[in-house]
Specification:
The protein is α/β, with parallel strands linked by helices. The protein is 48% helix and 10% strand.
Length: 717
């Protein structure tokens, strides 16, 4: 099976005899494996599996634990995310567990598929017998191990630190792990499982909570907040506040101490390039290139025009030659003579020749010798009455009437455009005269007119949006549908309602009376006839804007300088270095606080300090002296106990639930993350270890009963 990993493979596997046990600390966060009697594990990796496909070959590879981010660009990870074999600190996905064990034994140096060494593997407190049985079946059948022993990771850590004088024989072991937190009381050096308790809160939930908070705070950089990066930020910056409320109040007030406790993470930021004005040489070069491109386009247009003129001249000569030939043909032979040319009459040929000549004059840029006017010969049927016309002439008369009306309309539009151009020219001349007479006064008048007109256009837009109604603050939002309707629309709704009530019973007779149609006209009336006003104002506003830009090059319209009433798009301004700085203030102590207040993230369970009290109350016998011995040796282990301030906060919480004057001492493991494996390694190296294991033959003879009643004894340590 192909593996991708940065972990090097061990080469001394053959040096260890088959009697040397292999010690496995199977944690929900990290997997540790090594040889019994050694102080450190040989292989450590994250307890996750990912199986993506190669983008080119399509081969499925297995990525176990930490991976190189640079290699993931060659694989398609969209359908295969990181998967864990654990559910609340209990192994339930043994297919994933098999991948992890394959990788662990491979990196330990095992050559074949058979592992001929005894196995000591850790588990959580009160692990279900079904999970134990499945794990034993996997190790016996798949890897052929000779014998297995199970032990609790928190107990191994407690016994290891007890051996080094950190904690006493009687005490409370509190283990905030990755997915869960356990509390185990110890009496005379042995765990008392009847008094242990568990809550489903751990380092995973702290990381997830921190990721949510900073993603909401900095949505622009959500893609950078990967799980691995947030995990590193959590371990580097988070701490436990001695008093959460006073700490939060300090940050709320913005004191100097709060500023000192704020940490920053600077993301990579490249300043935008500064645009320098182009030099005269660059401007001249651009102008030359532009002129050259324009000349090339003009040459192409001239060539096309020449080709078009030649085609029209040839067509004109052909039509003229055809008319000369028609002069020599008899009238009754004209139709047969023109059958091969596509024309049906001499009149059609003459009309085509006129159109070709007009197109030729237009192509040459010359003025036509005649104006397009209604011709009495073209519209000869308009003066003829209908009863004197044949059916064919009636159709032709309708066509002539349409053509005449269209021609007259074109003439009127042409005259109107000509008058508008003259009026515009006259106004421009007057504006220029006023500008030359007093430039400053002219500029002030233009600006005042522009301001009034722009406010008028914006006010009309707001009224159009809100239909003339506001909510009292000159805003158009937060109003009901009835308030958004104008009076005409409300009247229409009233008429519809009246008609529905009047005509809604019995037979539908709407339309039988004349007043019904009058009501229909009122309901169908279009009340939006005032749309031309804003268009004319906007056109005048555009003209004023263009004129102001000519007069004052520094003029910036309202829509460009940000004074418009419209909402700006987010991040419309250029991003600065401060936008790429991630600040951690209250997040540093707010996220680990869920270890003491799980209800903040929707977990209705007890916190660490309350769990200690629950564990003391669950003891099978009540002894005040014993409880005092337990509280004088409260032992912290597990990855989530590494937060600064954890011991002080836990001591203050336990003091509140114990009798006044009770002695309380909280100690931390020498190495909260590795002491569980070190304790298991020390026990597996002892001669008494063989008596604590069960073999494959014992498992298949007794079945699940042997794992159900199995209990490890820790008296050796």
């Amino acid at each position: 099976m192909p593996f991708i990993s940065k972990i090097q493979r061990q080469t001394d596997y053959r040096r260890f005899p088959s009697s040397t046990p292999i010690v496995i600390d199977n944690g929900a966060s990290y997997f540790r494996i090594g040889w019994a009697g050694e102080p450190e594990p040989r292989v450590i990796f994250r307890n996750i599996v990912q199986r993506p496909r190669h983008k080119v070959t399509g081969e499925t590879v297995t990525i176990v634990g930490d991976h190189d981010v640079a290699l993931l660009k060659y694989f398609d990870c969209t359908r295969s995310g990181p998967r864990s074999a654990f559910d609340n600190n209990v192994v339930y996905q043994f297919e994933i567990m098999e991948y992890i064990l394959d990788f662990a034994f491979d990196r330990l140096g095992a050559d074949g598929s058979k592992i001929d060494h005894p196995i000591l593997i850790t588990e959580c407190v009160c692990n279900p017998s079904q999970s134990r049985s499945k794990m034993a079946e996997l190790l016996f059948d798949t890897y052929g191990v000779p014998s297995i022993a199970y032990g609790v990771d928190a107990v191994f850590s407690y016994k290891y630190n007890q051996h080094h004088g950190v904690c006493n024989k009687d005490g409370l072991a509190i283990c905030p792990g990755f997915m869960t937190t356990h509390v185990i009381p110890f009496i005379d050096g042995e765990p008392e499982y009847k008094g242990c308790c568990r809550t489903n809160i751990g380092g995973y939930h702290i990381t997830d909570y921190l990721k949510q908070l900073i993603s909401l705070k900095y949505p622009l950089h959500m893609a950078r907040f990967t799980w691995e990066k947030v995990e590193d930020l959590k371990m580097e910056h988070c701490y436990i506040a001695p008093d959460y409320m006073s700490e939060a109040r300090m940050f709320q007030n913005g004191t100097k101490e709060a500023e000192d406790k704020t940490r920053s993470w600077q993301l990579p930021w490249v300043p935008p390039p500064t645009e320098e004005p182009p030099s005269e040489e660059v401007i001249a070069e651009k102008a030359a290139r532009k002129e050259k491109a324009g000349q090339r386009l003009r040459d192409m247009a001239e060539a096309k025009r020449s080709i078009r003129i030649n085609e029209l001249e040839n067509e004109s000569h052909g039509l003229g030659f055809l008319l000369k030939q028609l002069e020599q043909v008899e009238d009754h032979d004209i139709q047969s003579f023109l059958s091969a040319t596509g024309y049906i009459s001499r009149k059609e040929v003459e009309s085509a020749l006129v159109k070709v000549k007009q197109s030729l004059l237009k192509a040459k840029g010359e003025q036509a010798e005649f104006e397009e006017k209604p011709d009495t010969e073209r519209f000869n049927l308009l003066d003829k009455s209908d009863h004197e016309c044949t059916p064919e002439e009636l159709k032709l008369k309708k066509k002539q009437l349409f053509l005449k009306t269209t021609a007259e309309g074109r003439q009127r539009a042409k005259r109107k455009r000509h008058e508008e151009e003259q009026e515009r020219e006259r106004r421009n001349q007057q504006d220029e005269q006023r500008r030359l007479k007093n430039p400053e006064l002219y500029k002030e008048q233009l600006l005042a007119k522009y301001k009034d007109l722009s406010e008028k256009v914006e006010q009309r837009k707001r009224l159009k949006t809100s239909k003339g109604h506001t909510n009292g603050n000159n805003n158009s939002g937060n109003v009901g549908r009835g308030e958004r309707l104008n009076p005409e629309q409300r009247e229409r709704m009233r008429l519809l309602t009246t008609a529905a009530f009047d005509r809604g019973k019995g037979e539908d007779t709407f339309g039988a009376r004349d007043e019904d149609w009058q009501l229909y006209k009122l309901m169908s009336k279009d009340n939006d006839d005032d749309d031309e006003g804003p268009d004319a104002d906007q056109a005048e506003l555009a003209r004023l804007t263009s004129r102001l830009r000519e007069v004052d090059p520094t003029f910036v319209p309202r829509s460009d300088n940000g004074n418009s009433q419209s909402a700006e798009a987010p991040w419309s301004r250029p991003l600065t270095e401060e936008d790429y700085r991630i600040d951690f203030g209250v997040e540093r102590f707010r996220c680990p606080e869920i270890l003491f207040r799980p209800n903040w993230i929707g977990i209705d369970q007890a916190g660490l300090d309350e769990m200690a009290g629950v564990s003391l109350r669950r003891l099978p016998f009540k002894d005040t002296e014993l409880e005092e011995r337990l509280t004088t040796s409260i032992f912290l282990t597990g990855g989530s106990s590494l937060f600064p301030g954890m011991s002080e906060r836990l001591e203050a919480g336990v003091r509140m639930i114990t009798p006044c004057g009770s002695p309380i001492r909280v100690v931390k493991a020498l190495n909260p993350t590795l002491d569980a494996w070190r304790g298991a390694s020390a026990y597996a190296a002892s001669p008494e270890f063989a008596s604590q294991t069960f073999s494959k033959q014992d498992y298949y003879e007794k079945g699940e009963d042997i794992v159900r009643g199995y209990q490890f004894r820790y008296h050796v340590l």
